[in-house]
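Sharing a chain and its predicted structure for anyone who wants a worked example. Both blocks are below, sequence first, tokens second.
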Amino acid sequence: MPRPAEGAHRWLRARVQLDAVPDSAVALFVSSANRARVFVNGAQVGNTSVSNAESFGWNHPLFYSIPTALLKSGENTIDVRLSVNRFGKGVVNGMSLGPHAELQKQYDHVLFWRVTGPQITSLVTLLLGFPALLYWLRRRQDAAYGWFGLACVLASVRNGHLFIVAPSLSGWYEAWASVPLHWMLISLIFFSFRLCRRSFPRAERALLLASVAWTIVVLTVPYPQVFGLGYVWLTALWIATIGFVALQYRRTPRLELVLLLFALLVAQAFGAMDLLLQLGIRQSEARIYLTPYSMVVFSLVMGANLVDAFARARTQQERINEELDARLAEREREIAIEHARVLELQRERVAAEERERIVRDIHDGLGSQLISSILLVEAGTLAGPAVAGVLRECVDDLRLAIDSLKPAGNELLLVLGNFRYRMEPRLANAGVRLDWRIAADGNSPQLSSDQVLHTLRIVQEAFTNALKHSRPRCLSVHFENLPGGAWALAVGDDGEGFDPQALQGRGDGLRNMRSRAAQIPVALQIDSGAGGTVVRMVSSMNENPLQSS
């Protein structure tokens, strides 16, 4: 039997008995019809035209306001000219004639759930699908997001045939309704596999090849049996997927698997109800298709999966943080033990160095003076007053060494003040005036006790040399802070000078002064002439002598 030509028509007629022409507005509500023209008593009251061509809005409810002038008492005829598709089928369902306000509410209700609802779900699934695809592009190992994103995009494309009005009937419209649905279901099946953390490469490859072959057949063989065959085998695959997910949940119960199983069952129920509605087995005046809303349930599944993934990542992060904290605490304990050991070794080293320094200073200062005094006394060259003077020098030397060991021994100016206190009586007895030019509130350089003692030894040696060899009337001590954190300390006298070059290699005192200056470290300058001698110590600019020790 030949197929009807594109643009063939069928006529339907309904007769309505009216006792009288209604006073209020009247409307005609048609639940669904494809490319229909409506005539009331021979006059056309509306059409679904797009430009000049009849449109194909099979899922759109139709609403016509009928002028009361077209109605009459008695029998009224309503004729519907219906265009049929290439398979000889057309759709018209649920015609109602009644009050305008009442039918308007019914029309709005049906329009929302059949047209506006799928539009909203299509937008939502697109907004969910594209981010999922972008995430999959960044993390290819998370294939579940890729299949879910693809299913969302395909669902939006497929839902378009529910609300997009086509200008004509063509074979592509049936493909638009079936091919995206087919690939959407395949994507959801693969999504279910990945959510179960399973993969079947060979079976999945075969399924993809079969889907490609079916798509080619649909696009090239325009028979309705082809569409029906595709729905049958997809239903079988869907039921098998439900069983697979149920088995996986039984093995490893997880919340996302419960939700996935629920979504699969809901989608199966919605699909079965839509199929029964399309076949005319399930009667419904509203004729609302439920399959577009199944993606909302799958979106909840993906949302639950994201929440679960976030919770697992958070738990893992907290566990890692706890492990790191434990390792850090253990490492801190080890470092504390090691630090205590290093401090103990450092204390022992400092104590040993301090003992060595004290021994050296006593030997070089007090010891050498005592030995020299003993030799002079034994030789009979020292009288009583001279012996007393030597002993006082020994006592002063001992006190200077003790001063350098006090807690304030790293404050050079404070230690120099103690030195002044020790030396002033001795200088007064010798008739020597002391010119002390060090501010009491000056900034003192921070030196170690060892460096302070070396500085004091240089000052003491300068004082001793002046008193023994120069016969001065005045001794001066001058300290100043230089730019860049440097400092200078000078000891001068107005006595008889000497030639430093002439004493090169012969003066132990000068040699010891230079040796101590190198250990501080500072630059040592000795200038001597007829007007006296100046011993000057200058530290390096921007150098902390304490760090150099």
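Comments welcome. Confidence is low (pLDDT under 50) at residues 1-5, 48-54, 544-549.
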